[in-house]
Amino acid sequence: MPNIAQHLDTVRSRIAKAAKAAGRDPDSVQLLAVSKTRPAEDLLEAMDAGQTSFGESYLQEAIGKIEALHCPSCKWHFIGPCQSNKTASIAQHFDWVHSIDRLKIAQRLSDQRARYQESRKPLNLLIQVNSSGEQSKAGVSPVDLDDLACKVKELPHVKLRGLMTIPAPETDFERQRRPFRLLRELFDQLNEKGYGLDTLSMGMTDDLEAAILEGATIVRIGTAIFGERKKAS
Ligand SMILES: *Cc1c(COP(=O)(O)O)cnc(C)c1O
Questions:
Q1: Which of 76, 92, 160, 163 has the smallest count of CB within 10 Å of its CB?
Q2: How far does the centroid of ligand 1 lie from the alpha carbon of residue 193, in Å?
Q3: What are 108-140's pLDDT values in tens digits?
Q4: What share of the chain is helix, strand, coil (3-state, %, to 5)?
């Protein structure tokens, strides 16, 4: 069995085991293969092993692969920082965006997705929350979440599906759980107000078990599937 297929198997087992330990159905956790910096051949190998959801962070690189691989059954998730000059291409090529932290970006994505409304569903959006305080700059702070969520929810060509976070790295399991628990509490609070959210994107290679225990519905896994990424030089 090729390497990537084997790694996918191992990750799927980790997810199943963590879900079971949390008393959850393993099918309630979706595996997003984070394929940023990987060549198209690696994604093809993952597709051959049944993987259809891919996360990308670098727009030009991602579009090259999306077009080259031409995979109608695949779902493409944009998980990188989202600036205004990228929104048109993201609205054209992606199914999900995990990194919304400003209204202006969500508005542009909605306006630009309108162009494809005949052929494509609304773009699925997740609001990125800064769950570990000052260490990380990306994401809306929990106190500003309500206001942003309430405005994003009203946009016509995007659909607010839930929340995403990238906590500061932690090795201790109990410490890993804290920001994930916070994200789930924020998610529950929005749903108590009637938001109908269904997606919590949290957990990566080193902390997916903690994230699943706290309710993750998407885990974003790169290294455990494709190996170590080369450091940017
Ligand atoms: C790179 C990246 C991941 C994957 O991280 P690994 O530790 O390689 O699993 C997940 N989420 C985001 C937002 C990323 O940029």
A1: 92
A2: 31
A3: 999 999 999 899 999 999 999 999 876 667 899
A4: 45, 15, 35
Residue 33 Cβ inside 6 Å of ligand 1? The answer reads: no
Condensed to tens digits (0 to 9), the pLDDT of residues 5-33 reads 999 999 999 999 999 999 999 999 999 99
* Cα 119 to averaged position of ligand 1 atoms, centre (Å): 30
Distance between Cα 177 and ligand 1 center (Å): 17
Residue in 79, 129, 209, 218 to alter for ligand 1 test, most ligand atoms within 8 A of Cβ:
79
- Residue 7 φ then ψ, to 5°: -60, -40
Q: Give the separation between CA 30 and CA 130, rounded to whole angstroms.
A: 22
CA dist 78 to 32, 83, 89, 121, 165, Å? 11, 12, 11, 16, 14
